[in-house]
Specification:
about 450 residues; alpha/beta; about 20% strand; elongated
């Protein structure tokens, strides 16, 4: 048998007792996937025929690289005694241990695992999951003999749709390699970070060049990949343009009479609906005593229907229920319930049937389509406004601190990794969409290059 060589991160991860759950969170190229294979093999060696391991990725295509790693490692240790069934994606070990490479993307996929028992659950590339919901459900499948600890090991890089919940739950709880109690799972966890420059088995200079070439215009993303820094928000889509010190403003009690006001709305039912009251400056001070250049936008208040436990799920409100809440909300602010919304709500729903916008209108809320523009144009305008906040001679975008859904989601939204100038659509982007529509109002003249407002 060939000698198995480990880097420092892998040695430390293997030294941790199985009683602790692990979050292997770090930059790219740190050796996390190989560490997962080593942890699985150790579990099999420790518990023999009692070991039942499930390794999960979001898609079957994503399993291919890990399958190659396991083939190489297990062949070194077991030769042909460990058998892999490629059709079933199952490893069977000579001591009776079992390891399945599985896929989990939707609640429908969970049916494959319902009622089954596993002693070790491994989730790779967990940042691809926009919420923890599916992975939390999988925890119910952990069952083993009384004397045998069951365990969850999660691996992820900073970034992706799941960056926010992973960072909040596992990274900012305690120092690396220090046990902490995680309230959702009611388990002791350890955050085990890694970076590529600690992996002596790769050409670090060449790998650094590859990462730099993959994101030449996104220094925040590069820093997240190189350093494994979760505070960077991956190089989130708005990371370079949004700052609390510039963009967050105190809660207003009223809106000055000479400011124009409109709503901006992103509709959803199973997904959240998000509505903002936008106050547009004529060029002057707001109630907080701050000067806002002409055509600056202040998101004064927010009405959203997101479930508290999952920012990507809505409460299922019908249009009449939502419209009633919007009307009452606008009355409290003494503003008219009218504004802009996505073009999609103006589509007719069937032969002779009205649109969602028609339903709103009947209930007293009047929306008009936002200015026609592609997504990228809208995002560029929104980014420019966020970046210009705080400048004395440029209109900016400002958000009241109590707009919790905005602050809980927008700063953490990731780029689309296939189209880096766009936003990843699987994350909770509903607040961002609503704001984008407000930045595309028809009565604005926009020239991206710099942006001009008129």
């Amino acid at each position: 048998m060939k000698e198995i060589k480990l880097n420092g991160f892998q040695e430390k991860a293997l030294a941790l007792p199985e009683e602790f759950d692990l979050f292997l969170g770090g930059g790219r190229g740190g050796g996390k996937s190989y560490a997962l294979a080593l942890l699985a093999m150790r579990h099999v060696e420790m518990y023999g025929d009692k070991a039942r391991i499930l390794y999960l990725r979001k898609t079957y295509k994503g399993l291919a690289d890990y399958e190659l790693i396991t083939r190489e490692l297990f062949a070194m240790v077991y030769g042909t005694a460990a058998r892999y069934n490629a059709g079933e994606h199952v490893w069977r070990f000579p001591n009776g241990g079992y390891m399945e490479l599985g896929q989990l993307e939707t609640h429908g996929d969970y049916a494959k695992y319902q009622g089954r028992s596993f002693t070790l659950l491994i989730v790779d590339e967990a940042g691809q999951y926009p919420s923890s919901e599916l992975l939390d459900i999988m925890r119910s499948n952990l069952r083993g003999p009384k004397e045998m600890p069951v365990r969850v090991v999660i691996a992820a890089n900073p970034g992706g749709p799941g960056h926010h919940w992973l960072a909040k739950r596992y990274v900012f709880q305690a120092d690396p390699w220090t046990p902490f109690y995680e309230s959702k799972s009611k388990r002791q966890w350890i955050y085990a970070p890694s970076t590529f420059d600690g992996n002596r088995f790769i050409d670090t200079e060449q790998y650094r060049d590859q990462l730099q070439s993959a994101c030449p215009d996104d220094p925040e993303l590069l820093r997240a990949w190189l350093e494994g820094d979760w505070a960077v928000n991956r190089g989130a889509y708005f990371a370079s343009v949004i700052e609390e010190s510039r963009n967050a403003v105190p809660t207003w009690q009223d809106i000055p009479e000479d400011w124009s006001v409109h709503l901006t709305h992103d509709f959803g039912s199973s997904a959240p609906s998000v509505t903002y009251i936008c106050a547009v400056s004529p060029g002057g001070e707001g109630p907080d005593g701050r000067y806002y250049p002409r055509d600056s936008i202040v998101l004064v208040d927010e009405l959203h229907t997101a479930r508290r436990e999952n920012p990507n799920n809505g409460l299922g409100w019908t249009v009449p229920v939502l419209a009633e809440e919007i009307v009452k909300w606008c009355a409290e602010w003494e503003v008219k319930p009218q504004g802009v919304a996505d073009d999609a709500i103006f589509a007719k729903t069937g032969s002779g049937a009205g649109s969602i916008a028609d339903e709103f209108s009947k209930a007293g809320v009047r929306f008009t389509p936002a200015k026609k523009a592609d997504r990228i144009t809208g995002w560029n305008i929104m980014r420019r406004l966020l970046a210009d906040a705080g400048k004395p001679d440029r209109p900016g975008l400002y958000i009241a601190r109590h707009c919790e859904y905005f602050w809980d989601t927008v700063p953490y939204l990731a780029r689309d990794q296939k189209r880096v100038e766009d936003l990843e659509t699987t994350g909770p982007d509903h607040a961002a969409d609503a704001v984008r529509y407000g930045c595309l109002r028809k009565d604005r003249v926009i020239d991206i290059g710099p942006i001009r407002w008129g």
